[in-house]
UniProtKB/TrEMBL annotation:
PANTHER family in alphabetical order: ALPHA/BETA HYDROLASE DOMAIN-CONTAINING PROTEIN, PROTEIN ABHD13
Residue ranges constituting the Peptidase S33 tripeptidyl aminopeptidase-like C-terminal domain according to the UniProt record: 236-298
Native source species: Desulfonema limicola
Protein name per the record: Serine aminopeptidase, S33-type
InterPro entries: AB_hydrolase_fold (IPR029058), Hydrolase_4 (IPR022742), Pept_S33_TAP-like_C (IPR013595)
Length: 303
């Protein structure tokens, strides 16, 4: 009978026993089940329930319109002109599961400073067109559609998936972006997804996260998750960037944003960490408005 020597103990295995044969029979079944479940979950995570916000612009002149998007889709867009002559345009992009209403308070802040705000709902969000497998890359495509529609250099503000999409759009259209704000962003997509799933449920993330990310990258994204990660694109973005991040963000920890900040050209990026904030409430913390305004003044208004 074969033996395994561990320290001072001899452990015997009977490779012909019923128990061993049963275990060896179960292993391929478990592997097949894991593959099938991870494939199903890969589809399901793209169908994460939407949590739209209901908050309409209450300042300036509001135009509610529809613009064309990729793959024959369309986006609902608000363009809000300030009550004074406009200093420029700010395009704001929401994160996963939200809609354009999510960015209204941030947009209003810029409106009070004399800027035109343009806010859209990404495909498969709000009342924009459906998209069966919406993802971060398509968030970028939607921001590209808005940039082309505006057709002049803008300040680009993205939150979470909208921040990742903003990096993609800015890398493809450097002539249409003059300054960026990235709130709740991340550096590399694969680690970010694993962190996201663990924040939902630790065991779900540990067990199924790697399988979901594998199918997502190899099948759905055709191995583009790495090349289109914010960290990979950042070195080619030559505009001032302010990264805004919650100190206690458990979805994408602060170290993700710090890694991204270091990836931009030297002296282009700055970080502001919102004390006590989580993933989505940095804009509600003391100091947020003054930091955003200070960065704007230093790089555009007083430059």
């Amino acid at each position: 009978m074969p033996c395994l020597y561990i320290g001072e103990k001899n452990i015997s295995f009977n490779f012909h026993s019923k128990e061993f044969i049963k275990i060896m029979t179960l292993i391929p079944i478990i592997l097949v089940l894991y593959v099938l479940v991870s494939i199903c979950l890969t589809y399901m995570v793209h169908r994460k329930p939407r949590r739209p916000v209901n908050q309409k612009p209450d300042w300036g002149k509001v135009t509610d319109t529809i613009i064309p998007a990729a793959d024959n889709g369309f986006l609902e867009v608000w363009r809000i002109e300030p009550d004074v002559p406009s200093k420029g345009i700010v395009v704001l992009a929401h994160g996963w599961s939200r809609n354009r209403d999510r960015m209204v308070n941030r947009a209003k802040m810029f409106g009070q400073w004399g800027y035109t705000a343009v806010i859209h709902s990404a495909r498969d969000h709000g009342n924009s067109s459906k998209c069966r497998l919406m993802n971060g890359i398509r968030f970028g495509e939607d921001i590209e559609a808005v940039l082309k529609w505006v057709n002049e250099p803008v300040i680009l503000y993205g939150h979470s998936a909208g921040a990742a999409g903003a990096v993609i759009a800015a890398s493809r259209h450097p002539n249409l972006v003059k300054l960026m704000y990235l709130e709740g962003s991340y550096a590399e997509t694969k680690p970010a997804l694993l962190s996201l799933y663990k924040s939902f449920n630790k065991y779900f993330g540990l067990i199924f996260g790697p399988g979901i990310v594998f199918w997502m990258d190899s099948v759905l994204y055709r191995n583009k998750l790495g090349p289109l990660s914010p960290k990979s694109l950042a070195p080619n973005i030559n505009v001032p960037v302010l990264l805004i991040h919650g100190e206690k963000d458990m979805t994408f920890p602060v170290k993700f944003a710090q890694s991204l900040a270091q990836s931009f050209p030297v002296n282009n990026a700055r970080m502001w960490i919102a004390p006590g904030a989580g993933h989505s409430d940095s804009s509600q913390q003391p100091g947020y408005k003054s930091e955003v305004r200070k960065f704007l003044n230093e790089n555009l208004e007083n430059a």
